[in-house]
């Protein structure tokens, strides 16, 4: 365990939202977010959709596992909560952490009613800052479907650069193999 990470921030503020660690008993609101968006999440997060959809208890187990993994420094999952309504509208996850580098993979999604509003740009920028400044990451990367152009534009806007193509790297729920594109963001190119 890295003792210097014992007092990292658990809530990150942006202009319009709070990006924070989940708390106990938030499984139901997370399950509701997944249900409202399952048709657009199914291709990108099939395991998550399946796990959360199983039962309200499975959603709470998922949330508690994210809390435990945060405390164990295995991964860092954030909910995106609107300032005005305190509604859960998104999810950001730093995972697959290699503490030897250190580097982490990033995944995220936002509720369909808030797409193209700039909220995810704000939230991602704040989590990237958290990764570099508080977790001392040297690199953060994301893998996205090659036809997910909205995601590719978003991560470029935040500062990621395309690193390469991963052919036949992902199997969609229907069984078709799909290509992924990898984008990376390194500490040396981070401006703050």
Structure in words:
The protein has 192 residues and is α+β, with helices and mostly antiparallel strands. It has a single domain (10-189), classed as Gcn5-related N-acetyltransferase (GNAT) (Aminopeptidase, 3-Layer(aba) Sandwich), CATH 3.40.630.30. Helices cover 33% and strands 32% of the residues. It is built from 5 helices and 8 strands, in the order E-E-H-H-H-E-E-E-H-E-H-E-E. The protein has an 8-stranded mixed beta sheet with strand order 1-2-3-4-5-6-8-7, sandwiched between helices. Strand 4 and strand 5 form a beta hairpin. Helix 4 (119-133) crosses helix 5 (149-158). The longest helix is centred in the first third of the chain and has 16 residues, at 56-71. It is globular, with a radius of gyration of 16 Å. The two termini are 27 Å apart.
Spatial order of the strands forming the largest sheet: 1-2-3-4-5-6-8-7
CATH H level, superfamily name: Gcn5-related N-acetyltransferase (GNAT)
Distance between the termini: 27 Å
Principal-axes shape call:
globular
Average of the residue pLDDT scores: 94
- DSSP summary, beta strand count: 8
Secondary-structure element sequence? EEHHHEEEHEHEE
- Name the structural class: alpha+beta
Question: How much of the sequence is in beta strands?
Answer: 25-35%
Q: Low-confidence runs (pLDDT<50, min 5 residues)?
A: none
Q: For this structure, what is the CATH class?
A: Alpha Beta
* Whole-angstrom Rg: 16 Å
Q: In CATH terms, what is the fold-level topology? A: Aminopeptidase
The total number of structural domains is 1
């Amino acid at each position: 365990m890295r003792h210097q990470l014992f007092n990292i921030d658990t809530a990150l503020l942006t202009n319009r939202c709070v990006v924070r660690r989940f708390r106990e008993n938030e499984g139901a609101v997370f399950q509701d977010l997944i249900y409202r968006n399952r048709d657009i999440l199914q291709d990108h997060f099939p395991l998550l959709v399946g796990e959360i959809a199983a039962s309200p208890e499975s959603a709470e187990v998922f949330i508690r596992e994210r809390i435990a993994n945060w405390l164990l420094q295995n991964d860092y999952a954030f909910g995106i909560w609107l300032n005005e309504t305190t509604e859960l509208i998104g999810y950001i996850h730093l995972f697959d952490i290699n503490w030897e580098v250190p580097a982490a993979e990033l995944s995220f999604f936002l509720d369909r009613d808030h797409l193209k509003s700039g909220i995810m740009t704000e939230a991602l920028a704040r989590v990237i800052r958290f990764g570099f400044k508080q977790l001392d990451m040297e690199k953060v990367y994301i893998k996205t479907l090659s036809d997910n152009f909205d995601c590719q534009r978003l991560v470029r806007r935040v500062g990621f650069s395309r690193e390469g193509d991963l052919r036949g790297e992902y199997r969609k729920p229907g069984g078709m193999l799909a290509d992924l594109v990898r984008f990376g963001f390194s500490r040396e190119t981070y401006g703050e």
